[in-house]
Write a structure and sequence with these properties.
globular; alpha/beta; six-stranded mixed barrel
Amino acid sequence: MSLHKRLISAISLAIAASALTAPILPRQSFLQGTQTGEGTFYDTGLGACGVDIQNSDLAVAVSHLLFDNYPGYNGINQNDNPVCGKILTASYQGKNVTVQVLDRMPFGQVTDLDFSPGAFETLASLDVGRIEMTWVWGG
């Protein structure tokens, strides 16, 4: 087999393998209605949206599944993702916090959120660590 044919074969195999591992999302159900997911918190810093986030900011990182599949995102420059700067309101045990999407978390389910510590503390003590919460787009 020629080098050219082997190269084409290898590329075809790689494309087929990546298609098998790509996440399958419901038809972007994360764009409307009330979402349910796990909420956590993280030490902030420079976010994927190009903003330096402070722990006291009311900021959130959305799941890589949501961030990477948000309509209008071309996958090239994270700072240009249309989800950056969007507002959402999360709720837990009768408490609410309105936050701005400023980051991308590299794990989790599509509707999971990773809050700045200041935002998380509005909902629960940091000692809790992980909460089952709901959220909606908007403030």
